[in-house]
Amino acid sequence: MNIEWAFANFVGAPGAVCHHQPTCGRSVIVEHNGDVYACDHYVYPQYRLGNMLQQMIAEMIDSPQQQAFGEDKFKQLPAQCRSCNVLKACWGGCPKHRFMLDASGKPGLNYLCAGYQRYFRHLPPYLKAMVDLLAHGRPASDIMQAHLLVVNK
Fold this sequence. Notes:
Distance between the termini: 28 Å
Oligomer: single chain
Radius of gyration: 19 Å
Strand order of the largest sheet: 1-2-3
Largest sheet: 3 strands, antiparallel
Low-confidence stretches: none
């Protein structure tokens, strides 16, 4: 997790990686032999999309199989995630990490959920300050001095 990903979600910009986006499926993995898989966390036969020596990667990414893979990320979110106040920052994280039981005893909760909640609940004042800095033509990195002033008081 890094601050740039959280900042992108905060301002409504597209994220650089799929972990904290509503859907996934645009970041495929290519193996040494040209085989293309849905994701680097899903290099299993059932997630093989094809081979880049025989098919264009763009075709594989836009395939119905890959589109369904990406949409399942949101469709399979447990109710606990859907009602969480950090949903639009977290989006349930990576589906590969969703193997814990939620509060109702159903599987599908991300094992990093507690950490994500703490992280995403802590960030808003700092992300807002970064937005304000940028709006005034200052670098977002100036947040470091602002944070130091708060800590040193």
